[in-house]
Amino acid sequence: MFDRPDSGERAVLVHLDFHRDSEKEDPQEFKELVVSAGVEPVDFVTGVRDQPSPRYFIGTGKLDELKSVVEAHEAELVLFNHSLSPSQERNLEKELKCRVIDRTGLILDIFAQRARTHEGKLQVELAQLEHLSTRLIRGWTHLERQKGGIGLRGPGETQLETDRRLLRARIKAINARLERVRKQREQGRRSRKRAEIPSVSLVGYTNAGKSTLFNKITDAAVYAADQLFATLDPTLRRIEMDNVGPAVLADTVGFIRHLPHKLVDAFRATLEETVNADLLLHVIDCADEDRFDNIEQVESVLSEIGAADIPTLKVYNKTDLLESPQCRIDRDEDGVPERVWVSAVTGQGVDLLFQAMGELLGAEYFENILALTPAQGRLRARLFELNAVRREHYDDQGNCNLDVKLQRRDWNQLLRQLEISEDQLSMVGPVVHDRV
């Protein structure tokens, strides 16, 4: 839409508080977004209203004040911490004589700067085009209608119609390419499922420390920085866990208040890594004063993408910033891990995180040593067919001791097929294996 320099733009920020707005935007978070976009904020205009003005979003008095501030600082850009309609953006630009971008446009710009992979760039472009499709008229008001007269009548389309047609064609092409990406990801997930490799996905509010924790767990070199949306492209790594074996850990994009729906739709192929995970690690900045609000925002987005029912372990990160840091596992009344307190920077508590993850994922597996008699050879054969036998040896009585591990649902299904109950089997007991 605009020719944007890499950095150094002087911008005036605008934030309004509405009396009836139950979900107010955070001015401090807005400043962090602006800095993450590489913009230099020169002033912050605030105000209070009962409801937005249909024409300018702000009142005429506040508009005059904003004009004076823009002229005094010679600002090239005005950023609103709100969602503006296309007509409001057009009217404001006409009055302020500079570019006006709302919160959604700012987030889209940050995503465009951070996209590294081909898939990420496609997803950002799709979101930007869908956002731009409602704002095309701003650049072509002088070509809204064709002129009449000799030689100008007849079939044809305006420049605006041409742009919209080209835009629709480009959006259709990107959707087709992202559909192929989605199918490739689905194929990879099916392969991991057949191999009984569980998947764990890191989710959380932006700048909660997900990538730092990911690097600490996997010894990866994912870009991590103290800024909003440092991670945009998903990264997958293989890890080893006690009593579970291999697993796949995914680092995903962070969430934010009022995440634009265009972004949620465009990044659906990436977010499917979260939707199809066996366990979610909800990383939380425990030193953030707004952590409870951030938790609600993340849970809202998870519900929106259909991941609300996936087992979740809350990981309270950045304990090193607390006055009395203490790494521990908090459990519910049944003894199931609910929260783990860690520090991704120092590495403290990571062993507790592995322990909690192993308990939650291992609960879905049947793992034991079976003492089978020669008459139970059919069960032994089926366990080998399922690739569930890890070790086998015979005792002095001729019984076969099988160290087995398989998913609980497969174990229950096998017992039903062979019409055997667990009470009829002799079990030596589970074996604790060292982490690989």
TrEMBL record:
One of its GO terms (molecular function) is guanosine tetraphosphate binding. Mg(2+) binds at residues 211, 231. GTP binds at residues 204-211, 229-233, 251-254, 317-320. Residues 164-191 form a coiled coil. Keywords: Coiled coil, Cytoplasm, GTP-binding, Magnesium, Metal-binding, Nucleotide-binding. The keyword DNA damage does not apply. Its cofactor is Mg(2+). It is found in: Cytoplasm. Residues 198-365 form the Hflx-type G domain. The keyword Cell inner membrane does not apply. PANTHER family: GTP-BINDING PROTEIN 6-RELATED (PTHR10229:SF0), GTP-BINDING PROTEIN HFLX (PTHR10229). This is GTPase HflX. It comes from Oleiphilus messinensis. The lineage of its organism: Bacteria, Pseudomonadati, Pseudomonadota, Gammaproteobacteria, Oceanospirillales.
